[in-house]
Amino acid sequence: MVERIHFSTSDISIERLSEKDKGDLLNFSCGEDDKENQLNSFFHSDKLFRCNKHHLCSVYVVRQKSTSSLLAVFTLANDSIGLLSHEDKKDLQEEVCYDVAEDYNEIWNQQTSFPAINICHLGVSNQYQSLGIGTILIQIILKIFTKYDASGCQFVTVDSLNNSQTNNFYLKNGFSNLSNSDIKDSTRRMYIQLDSIRE
After folding, report:
1. What are phi and psi of 157, to 5 degrees?
2. What is the pLDDT of residues 112-127, one digit of tens each?
3. How far apart are CA 137 and CA 140, in angstroms?
4. Residue 1: pLDDT band by 50, 70, 90 thresholds?
5. Is the C-alpha dihedral spanning 162, 125, 9, 50 positive or negative?
């Protein structure tokens, strides 16, 4: 039984996926039912390693420093928010207009695509859930990409598994729904505008 204390950034290490992680990943579970849980299926499969190897996404493993226990796994990939409908663009503009710099408004209003980084997958081990690990990882990712300047990046996006627990987790961590058109889909597209959280 895990002691119910919250983790901090100093308690964890984050490293790129390597072959030595295979054994721990086979035992990793972040959902109640392995057969039904899409994240578990992905984390248990060789597909995870192939996607990492061929640069579809970068895979990171999160471990407890003191014990080396596998706490979480997440993946990141380049992304963009493409707005095909006038209604979606209008909604996004209204949602984030206060965070767009005045000298950038003209360009912003002409954009139909916005560069982003996507949190493709994020799973916290069952036994370590509700200890603040997921929130710490979101905060770390946001902090990195508010300072990122190797290429354009205006948003962090996520395709949240469409259930109340996962959606609420991302909403509590500052994400907003991009559209209501996916309200009945298996995932919901969510975002944070990085300018809204830059210091």
Report:
1. -120, 160
2. 889 999 999 999 999 9
3. 5
4. very low
5. negative
